[in-house]
Specification:
Blueprint (H helix, E strand, L loop, with lengths): L2 H11 L3 H21 L9 H19 L4 H18 L4 H21 L10 H11 L4 E2 L12 E2 L4
Helix pairs in contact: 1-4, 2-3, 3-4, 3-5, 3-6, 4-5
Length: 157
């Protein structure tokens, strides 16, 4: 990673040390759960990767909302996950897939927020719901595809 990228990352995490630690914990949790449920596709561009990215963002939101407002958590979550895609670039279609699935996780959290006090969110709400969303996931084939509201993944051929 270049010095410029390190500086950009530090400019986001240093002002928000608690959010940064919680995000790291969310990353580890989401990866472990995705590996358990989708061992063959959680680490590539398959359906497990879609689940992992959405779950990752939902977990960041859960943990950060326990210590701050949903608005601040959402802003940080979007910034840190977008920065992840910038710092560790993929092919354009892979980046579109990851950003789209990140948004699904954030949107799903915000959709549930009015019905449940943020302090009472648990991981199980999101694990089960996102596994169910996998039934309707769409294959992303080109940059013009728009599958708003659906998880997307790349063909697993």
């Amino acid at each position: 990673m270049s010095f410029k990228k390190i500086r950009r990352l530090l400019s986001l995490v240093i002002p928000h040390p608690l959010f940064s630690l919680l995000s790291f914990y969310a990353t580890m949790q989401a990866f472990a759960i995705a590996q358990k449920h989708f061992p063959d596709t959680a680490s590539n561009n398959g359906i497990g990767n879609a689940f992992r990215h959405a779950l990752w963002c939902a977990f960041i939101m859960i943990y950060c909302c326990k210590v701050s407002s949903p608005e601040k958590a959402l802003d940080f979550c979007k910034r840190i996950t977008d920065m992840h895609e910038e710092l560790f670039p993929n092919q354009p279609l892979e980046t579109k897939m990851d950003l789209h699935n990140n948004k699904i996780g954030m949107d799903y959290f915000m959709e549930l927020l009015p019905g449940i006090h943020r302090q009472f969110f648990e991981k199980g709400f999101f694990i089960d719901a996102l596994i169910k969303k996998m039934d309707d996931a769409k294959v992303l084939k080109n940059l013009d595809d728009d599958f708003e509201g659906y998880l997307v993944y790349l063909d697993e051929k």
